[in-house]
Amino acid sequence: MKYILTSEQMKNCDKYTIANFCSSIDLMEEAGKKCFEIIKRHISHENKIVVFAGSGGNGGDGLVIARYLKNENFDVSVFHFGNHFSTENLENKERFEGFFIKNLESIKELNNLVIIDALLGNGQNKILSDEYKNLVSFMNSLNGFKISIDLNSGICSDSGEVLGAYFKSDLTIAINNLKTGHFFNEGISAYSKFEVVDIGLKYIEEDNFAKQLELDDLKAFFKPRNRNSNKGDYGRVCLIGGSKLTPGAVELSLNALISLRSGIG
What we know:
The chain is of the alpha/beta class and 265 residues long. It has eight helices and ten strands. The strands form two sheets. A seven-stranded parallel sheet has the order 4-3-2-5-6-7-9. Helix 2 (24-39) packs across helix 3 and helix 3 packs parallel to helix 4 (87-96). The protein is elongated and about 70 Å long. 35% of the residues are buried. The mean pLDDT is 92.
């Protein structure tokens, strides 16, 4: 099964990992490298790639991605946006040593465009400023393949609600875990598909995490069937609900394909 974390749970795991196992700059390096490995499967050297990097950890991940792209001779440039830049963010800006875009209008002239959203990421819960709204709207207006890092900018990390405007991606790359905001409200509509990269975060308070069941979990739940058996050998289901005037839900449940196929009594 996969863990699905809230923003606070993710931050706590981040802090615990950094305090006990590795530095924050090394964790950012791993996140950017793993995202790059996925991104390069979706692009070619014919593409013009623009990374929109914010001022915090998500922007730092984007700058690491840009450096790996540049080192493998992809045509990549960065639009660095925001204020109050984190130490790790500025360190990765220095490490990039590539081209920084000053004029947004020049992006419209690029062909075979790939847009990478690394503006905000995990922890979003406040309505975007007008500057961010305008930038997200501009990013959405561009034609090209669109990728978000961790969580689409403008989507609340926990509720999936829109924070004034949000970036619509073809692919979202969740870092270490999916967040609850990926599944609720507009959060589930913000991306066409997602992938998850494991960066080695150490978990704390795992019992409180939401969990996503996978096929192997379901296989482990159901006992192997003996050929010489009957429906009573595999448990029974009792449905309680409805009323004389509103029996529909229970009647539908009684006849549901899942009940018949699972072989219960």
